[in-house]
UniProtKB/TrEMBL annotation:
A GO cellular component annotation in the UniProt record: cytoplasm
Name of the protein in its database record: Methylthioribulose-1-phosphate dehydratase
Cofactor(s) listed: Zn(2+)
Any GO BP annotation: L-methionine salvage from methylthioadenosine
Function: Catalyzes the dehydration of methylthioribulose-1-phosphate (MTRu-1-P) into 2,3-diketo-5-methylthiopentyl-1-phosphate (DK-MTP-1-P).
Family listed: Belongs to the aldolase class II family. MtnB subfamily.
Gene: mtnB
Domain Class II aldolase/adducin N-terminal: start-end pairs: 9-195
Domain of life of the source: Bacteria
HAMAP family with a match to the protein in the record: Salvage_MtnB
InterPro entries: Aldolase_II/adducin_N, Aldolase_II/adducin_N_sf, MethylthioRu-1-P_deHdtase_MtnB
Keywords assigned by UniProt, alphabetized: Amino-acid biosynthesis, Lyase, Metal-binding, Methionine biosynthesis, Zinc
Gene3D superfamilies linked: Class II aldolase/adducin N-terminal domain
Amino acid sequence: MSTLDLAGRALAAESARYEAMGWMRGTSGNLSVTLSRDPLRLAVTASGLDKGALTATDVVEVDADGQAVPGQAKAPSAEAGLHARIAGVAGAGAVVHVHAMAPVLAAEFWPDGVELRDMEMLKGFGRRAHDDLVTVPVVPNSQDMRVLGDAFEAGFRADTPALIVARHGIYVWGDDLAHARQRLECLEWLLRFRTRLYRAFEGSPQ
Ligand SMILES: CSCCC(=O)C(=O)COP(=O)(O)O
Ligand SMILES: [Zn+2]
């Protein structure tokens, strides 16, 4: 089995997991793993498919611009360009993108960035101490992955492996798919907590 086939199998299994969590409704969301760094090559989920029912062949190899390398049977995710940009800038081994509700809601409340502090779950997001102030960057949505990539890079901090795209979804990255998922699960919990608390106090700063 080729490296791309192995990546496809892992991406399909991981996608099914996210879909079961309700974070990849319809055909939303996409995942990637880095295959090589020089040149940069990613295995990314194919576009427009039910992410709960992917098979090992629903994967596409793309370059640093998110373009399919020659010989690919399927179209790569429409967001492959942003995956490639994140993998290149952050050095990520895996990038996951889901359409969970809490990050999008948080971006409505805090469009300049979502501040998180003094929460034990921050450790699961890769921070050293539970009292760190973490600002998760928010960028406006765009259909142009170069625009999104430039906005991501402008606000990139190596210690904050996440990006919320307003009115769209969230990207989280890590060394591999399991690492990215652990970070995403902890961050989604933190964002759910933050938005629920904010709403409970009817919009007062919390
Ligand atoms: C209803 S999903 C709209 C497109 C999107 O945001 C997404 O995450 C899925 O796009 P893909 O091309 O990866 O299927
Ligand atoms: Zn999306």
